[in-house]
Specification:
This protein is mainly β. The chain folds into two domains: 102 residues, Thrombin, subunit H; 83 residues, Thrombin, subunit H. 11% of the residues lie in helices and 46% in strands. The protein is built from two helices and twelve strands. Strand 5 and strand 6 form a beta hairpin.
């Protein structure tokens, strides 16, 4: 089995030289958010780069060497691997099976151009408040992304209505009701959440 070649603090120069000779190991810079599942947790982490055999992720949560990760780059594209190094908010993952990184990035680009595309979302079950000119109402959030949220609500909110969303942690963002029907709805956050706020689903357990 070939030894995984992973970009990291101690071997970046070696990788640059080696990838000039071995195209299959060439790293592609990827600025993308992925949904990362780990033992008992889910979060949105940033993909820094990716090759056929591994990737570098950025997240400020503690990451242990040897952890198994399931990394959803989109609803249709998922890879699995193991953490082989971790340092100062970054980690390297060796894939369980090699991928064709050029083909993966092509598929992701096509998905992003297609109608109906939406950012990766975290499944959550947490109470929140919606504040409008008419007052404050309680909702239950069922998913979150940097710029969107799905919710359950006993009443009905007018589509297009401007609201303030207040999370249980105290985070407050302005939003607009995108859709609402049968006790469910979706918000577009005109003030996106910080990626760091979404690195661990445990922050929304209440």
């Amino acid at each position: 089995m070939k030894k995984p070649l992973l970009s990291g603090p101690s071997n970046e120069r070696a990788i640059d030289a080696d990838t000039d000779r071995r195209g299959s190991d060439r790293y592609r810079t990827v600025w993308r958010i992925a949904k990362v599942k780990r033992d008992g947790d889910v979060g949105l982490w940033r993909v820094r780069n990716m090759s056929d055999r591994g990737m570098m992720l950025a997240a400020d949560v503690p990451i242990a060497i040897g952890e198994k990760l399931e990394i959803a780059l989109s609803d249709a594209v998922t890879v699995r691997g193991k953490v082989v190094w971790s340092d100062e908010g970054r980690c390297g993952v060796a894939f369980d099976e090699e991928v064709d990184v050029a083909d993966v990035l092509k598929r992701l680009a096509a998905e992003q151009r297609a109608s109906g595309y939406r950012q990766p979302r975290l499944p959550v079950h947490t109470r929140a408040q919606l504040i409008t000119d008419d007052g404050t109402s309680e909702i239950e959030l069922v998913d979150l992304s940097q710029s969107g949220a799905g919710y359950v609500h006993a009443g009905h909110l007018e589509i297009g209505k401007e609201v303030d969303l207040v999370l249980a942690s105290g985070i407050r963002r302005k939003a607009i009701v995108r859709w609402s029907r049968e006790g469910r709805g979706g918000l577009w956050l005109t003030q996106p959440l910080d990626r760091a706020d979404l690195e661990s689903i445990r922050r929304f357990q209440n």
